[in-house]
Design a protein that fits this description.
Layout (H helix, E strand, L loop, with lengths): L1 H30 L4 H6 L5 H10 L6 H12 L14 H36 L4 H15 L2 H15 L15 H34 L3 H8 L4 H12 L1 H25 L5 H11 L2 H29 L7
């Protein structure tokens, strides 16, 4: 029941945050230069046609009325109709969401597979060449732009070696093998930055944990090195790592915008870019809302994971 109360409390707390996201997105898009009606009707359209287009798009209403109408629709799952495609925004987002989620969580997986062994090894080999190399490579990975990494990865692994496709996306339901193959390079481009940040955190947390008395006691009792590192060390070092991982998921959602452009993938990030240029207000509002919901869900999972990794953490 305690966990259930926490979940309900966090869900209730998301409501004002979602409203704030909607207000800020609406304000930013509304204040940007340009008239969506002119964009949709064409620069050479007559004033009468532009006015008709504005009325059909609902832009003749006051901004407050437009916002209230959108919020009331969003509350029942109606995110409005796209100005550009004249289709429900919810349908557009749902079509592209699998691409963005595949990129995001595929990158997290790659980051964890690289970061955990690298961070643990560096912590165990404190002061060694491997430790110094890990520090250097993590600094390099954190500072490298995702756009640059994506281009270099395509150049080496797709265009030069020909191991993976350079662009595109294949849905999982159509061909699981090709789905995974098309995700390797973009997930690697995003995942290297995640791996660098997580490896640094794993290294620091493990170094601190390995100095505790209970680790020395376990070793004195003859517990194997693997058991000491995994059961006693890594689990107790996981709380700060999970916190950083939650922050990385939020960053990845923004990073997919760049990577989807590099690898020509029709994800939510690509939809956001086109919506900005077309001043497609309903689409932008819907994308911001969905991104906020994903971030808040990740935060909830991170909070719930604390009590598992650290017995001292209790949900009050």
């Amino acid at each position: 029941m305690t966990t259930l109360r926490l979940v309900l409390r966090r869900v209730a707390a998301t409501v004002p945050m979602l409203i704030l996201v909607a207000v800020l997105t609406f304000a930013m898009v509304s204040l940007t230069p340009g008239d969506p009606a002119v964009i949709m009707a064409g620069e050479s359209a007559s004033p009468e046609l532009i006015e008709e287009t504005r009325e059909s798009m609902g832009l003749d209403e006051p901004l407050t009325v437009q916002f209230v109408n959108w919020v009331s629709g969003a509350a029942v799952g109606d995110l409005g109709t796209s100005f550009a495609d004249e289709r429900p925004v919810a349908d557009l987002i749902l079509e592209r969401l699998p691409v963005t989620l595949s990129l995001t969580f595929g990158s997290v997986l790659i980051g964890l597979l690289i970061a955990i062994p690298a961070g643990v090894f560096a912590a165990v080999r404190r002061g060694s060449l491997a430790d110094r190399a890990t520090i250097f490579l993590t600094s390099l990975g954190i500072s490298a732009p995702e756009f640059f990494l994506g281009l270099m990865i395509v150049l080496v692994f797709a265009l030069t070696l020909g191991w993976f496709p350079a662009t595109g996306y294949v849905p999982l339901v159509e061909d699981p093998g090709m789905w995974a193959l098309h995700l390797v390079l973009p997930c690697l481009a995003l995942g290297l930055g995640v791996a660098a940040e997580l490896a640094r955190q794993v290294r620091g947390s493990m170094r601190e944990v390995l100095e505790h008395d209970y680790i020395q006691t376990a070793r004195a009792k003859g517990v194997s090195t693997t058991s000491v590192l995994v059961k006693h060390g890594l689990k107790n070092a996981a709380v700060p790592v999970v916190t950083v991982l939650g922050l990385q998921v939020r960053r990845l959602l923004g990073g997919t915008v760049v990577i989807e452009q590099v690898f020509i993938m029709d994800g939510v990030g690509d939809l956001a870019v086109s919506s900005v240029f077309q001043r497609d207000l309903p689409a932008l509002m819907g994308i911001a809302l969905v991104a906020a919901v994903i971030v808040l869900l990740v935060n909830l999972v991170v909070d719930l994971s604390y009590s598992y990794f650290d017995p001292k953490v209790r949900v009050s």
